[in-house]
Amino acid sequence: MMFDTPLREEHRAFAAQDAARRAERARTSRGAAEGVVVARREVEIEYLPFGPADAAGAPTCEVVAQYAEVELEYAAIRSGVALVDCPERAALVVTGKDRVDFVNRLVTQDIAKLAEGGVTRAFLTNRKGRIEADLVVARFEDALLLDTLAHDVAPLRDALEKLHFSEDVAFAAQAGTHARIALHGPKAESALKALGLLVAKSNPTVAGSAIASTTHADAWRASLGDAHAYVWRIEEFGVPGFALSVPIAQAANLWRSLVTFGARPAGWFATNTARLEAGTPYFRIDFGPTNLPAETGVLASRVSFTKGCYPGQEVVARMQHLGKPKQMLVGLRLEADLLPVAEAQVFAASTDGATPDAVALGDQVGVVTSSGIAPMLGAAPVAFAMIASSSYAEDTKVLVNAEGAQAPATVGGLDFLSRAAQTSSSAHDDGNGA
Predict the structure, then answer these.
(1) Same-domain pairing of 133 and 161
(2) What pLDDT is attached to residue 72?
(3) I want to staple 266 with a disulfide (CB 3.0 to 4.6 A). Which of 82, 92, 375, 416 is the partner?
(4) For residue 360, what pLDDT band results from cuts at 50, 70 and 90?
């Protein structure tokens, strides 16, 4: 497998231990006789293919679907700390004295203004303004780390090398040498502190004070014996999060240490739910190489309109200042207890005027890209969808194919958690004013 995880044995070990603990609790709750031994048993982990298949049709990457109960894994994200194996992601590290200027000339974000220890997101676009890679850029003292999909690391390196002439830069791909894991949840920072992986940074003395303040950077290196891990902050699920790129030789020990601390491994089913609620679309799932940045719903976090040129900059700027994208990724809050699947059709909802409550099926205006049930919204079905300009305005009503019916839905922003908070605040204000 092209992008296999080195942690499969750790997956099985945790799942078996967790199953044994649950069996023991069940035995105890049933009042079973003392002395009964609950045997540790092997548990089969379900994996989901991620990315394109190889020439023989076999997966090139697999992610864990779930380790045990999805509800427990999701709860760890929202109230504890979830540990996520991310073999679908990898990094390209750029070094050399010209690294910042070189990368800055090629991506949509202003890397030159990124402070050491800073993290930002950016697109790599081609000359037509289409997206070739979705990047997390972390700036270290002597390197830039470009985190992206593992399948995109080699094409990213090829693209940068083709544009490399006399600049002092060098590229090192971490796919195959490092394991990519992540921690998400309110207790994620505590987990890093407990393992000595949160590195403090002293600031200069402020206003003549003899005490220097201590803060934490957004990206740093953490020691792992005689090696080190790259660590950077990410917030994809509406809770604190940290990504780690760890040498493969140290990955299993670090995984076990985090589990011992109390981090619960979480699979795709739990993390996909959390990222949908928080409005985090994924490249090559919700938008892709045929899209312009203006169509992604995340333009503000990826593109600077005050920096210098980069490939496709004129197209991106023209769309921002003069045009209107033909389509855009939006969030759909369904008004029926029906869940659409990816690629489900979305239609305009029309009325005949005489009976405004009667909704008729109009023309197709889009397609669902991701969907799920949102626990933070009272188990409401939600989805991301790429919608045509005729119907992507806020609060537009549409109909979505779901479970053999057309479910009514309302168009809004991608971040369902923020929308829910605003609705709750508005309702509270109305109640106070009543």
Answers:
(1) yes
(2) 97
(3) 82
(4) confident
Asked, for residue 42, whether it belongs to a domain, the answer is no
pLDDT tens-digit readout, 50-93: 999 999 999 999 999 999 999 999 999 999 999 999 999 999 99
How far, in Å, CA of 286 to CA of 385, rounded?
8
pLDDT of residue 208: 36
Q: Which domain holds residue 363?
A: 326-424
Q: What are the tens digits of pLDDT across the range 234-261?
A: 999 999 999 999 999 999 999 999 999 9
Whether 390 and 268 share a structural domain: no
Residue 66 — φ and ψ, nearest 5°? -165, 155
- Taking residue 247's Cβ as centre, other Cβ atoms within 10 Å add up to 18
The pLDDT assigned to 322 comes to 81
Extract the tokens encoding 98. 């010209």
Q: Which residue has the higher pLDDT, 205 or 350?
A: 350
Q: So what's the pLDDT on residue 213?
A: 35
In a domain, 431, yes or no: no
Total number of domains constituting the chain: 2
pTM above 0.70, yes or no: yes
